[in-house]
Specification:
The complex is a heterodimer. Chain A is built from ten helices and two strands. Chain A is mainly alpha-helical. In chain A, strand 1 and strand 2 form a beta hairpin. The two termini of chain B are about 40 Å apart. The chains are: A mainly alpha, B alpha/beta. Chains A and B meet through helix 2 and helix 4 of A and helix 2 and helix 3 of B.
Chain lengths: ~270, ~300
Amino acid sequence: MVTLVLPRLISFEGTGRRAASVTERNIACLRSTYWIVLLSGFLEPVLYLFSIGVGVGGLIGDLALGDGRLVGYAEFVAPAMLAASAMTGALSETTFNFFGKMKFMRLYEGILATPVRPIEIALGELAWAMARGVLYSAAFLAIMVAMDLTSPARALAMLPAAILIGFAFGALGMTISTLIRSWQEFDLIANGQFALFLFSGTFAPATAYPQWLRWVVEVTPLYRSVDLTRALSLGPVGWVQALDVLYLVVLFAVGLSIAGRRMTGMLCK
Amino acid sequence: MDALIHARGLVKRFDDFTAVDGIDIDVRRGEAFGFLGPNGAGKSSTMRMIGCVSPPTGGVLRILGLDPRRDGPAIRAKLGVCPQLDNLDIELTVRENLTTYARFFGIARRVARQRAAELLEFVQLTERADSKVEPLSGGMKRRLTIARALVNEPEMVLLDEPTTGLDPQARHLVWERLFRLKQQGVTLVLTTHYMDEAEQLCDRLVVMDGGKIVAAGSPRALIERYSTREVVELRFATGSQQAYAEKLAGLGERLEVLPDRILLYVADGDEAVAEVQRRSLDPAGVLVRRSSLEDVFLHLTGRTLVD
C-alpha cells in the first residue's frame, strides 16, 4: 500500500516529481513476478528471529542489559533483526538490482534522454528501496508486537527509525554500485553485509568483544542502526541515539550525493 | 528562434581522443537533417551532445535556443530520442514502455494511456500491446523505440542510425513511418551510414569523417557538386583491376579502383560503356547507374561508407 501512496505524496513539480516517476516505473514492474523477491526479503529476518531468537534463546535464557535489566533473548535479538532487514531490503535493491539496471539493462540511458537527471534516478530508486524496506519493517514489527517482544507504541516509534536505516543503507548501496565493476565483486559485498549482520551487536552485545574489536564494531552503520532500534524497543533512549540518527542522516546525504555525481560521470560522458 | 540546433566549433574529446573536431551546424524547424558518415566519424557523439546527455568539450551549442549545459532538462522535455541500440524496458510490456516513459516527462496518466494507444497504432504494434519486449523482432523493437521517442510530442526527433541491423523489409517500414512524421512537420535529425537512407529521408545533410564535416548540402546538390551524373561499374577478374585501370585512362571525369570493381564517373554511362568496348576491354560485369551519396563520400574521403 505504502508503495502506491508514496509517489503521490511527494508529487510536487521538479525533482520530486521526476524522482517519483522513476519509483513509479518500479511499481509497474511489480505487477510481474517481482513480488517473489519481496517475499524472500521479508522471510529472512523472520526465520532468523525464530531460529536464533526463539530457538537458541531458549538455551541461553535471559540476558543482562547494560543497565542491569534482564530481558529475554528474543526481545534482545528482535530489534536487531528489524534493523538488519531494513538494511537487507535497501541493499538488495540498490546493489544487485540497481547495478543491473545501470550496466546491463541500459535502462537509465533511456531515462536520461528525458528531463529526469541522474540524481533524480538515484532518489527515485532510493525511495523505492525504502518503500520496500518499510513494507518489510511494518510486517516484522507486527510480528514483534504479536509475540509480545515490544509494545505497540514502541513499534510505532521504530518504524521511522527503520525507514531512516533503509535510506542510509540504500544510499550506501548505490555508492557501492557506482564503484563496482563486475558481478563477481558482489560476492565481496555479500560477505561484508553478512559480517555486519553477524557482528553488529545483533546476536551478542558489543561488550562481549575485546576492546579493539568493539571500537571497530561500534562505528559500523548496522551497529548504529541496531543501537537505535534496540533503544527504542527496550529503552532507555538518550543522546547516543541522537548520535545514531545523525550518523544515519549523514550516511544518507553523503551516499546520495556521491552516487548522483558518479552516475553523471558514468552515464553522461 | 530560427535554428533548432545551432553549433559553432563544437568539440567532443574523450581523454586524448577527439570524437568531434569543431563542427558547425544549423538545423531549421521542419526539416529532415542527416549526419552521414562511416562508423567512428563522430555522428553518435554529436547526437549525444544534441540530446543533452553528453556535455560538449568546447564550442557553442544551442538547442531550441537554450544552452544544454544549463537547461538540459528543459531541452530534453521537448526532444524525442531514438538511440542506436534499443534501450527499451525489458521488464515492462510494450504499452507500459510508452506509458511509463511518458511519466518521466510528467505527462498525466490518462493522457499517457491515450497517447500510447495512438502511437502503438502509428507504429503498427497495437496487437502486441500487452506482450513483453523481448520476443519482439528487431524491426518491432525499433518501431517501439520510435513510438517512445514521440510520447512527449517532441519538437525535434533525434534518430541515431534508425535502421542499422534491420532487414530490408523492416527498414522500409521504418522509413515509411519516418517519412510520414516528416510530412506532419516534425523536425528529424538522423545519423546513418546508409546512403539510400540519407537520400530518401534527408532534406539536407552533412558528410562527416574523422570528427569533421567534409561536405554539406542537399543530397542532390552534393551529388551534383562532388560526382558526375552517371557511374559505370566495371568488374574484371580479381587481381587485374590495376592493369585495366591504366587502359581505362582518360575515360570520364574520374576513376576509382575498389578491391572488387572499377568505378568510372561519366556524364553519359552508355557512351562510356561503348568506349570500353571499343578499347576491346572485356569486363566480367558492367553496370550503369546514377550517382549516389556513396560516390560523394568516396570522392571526399577515398573510402566507402559500408565495408
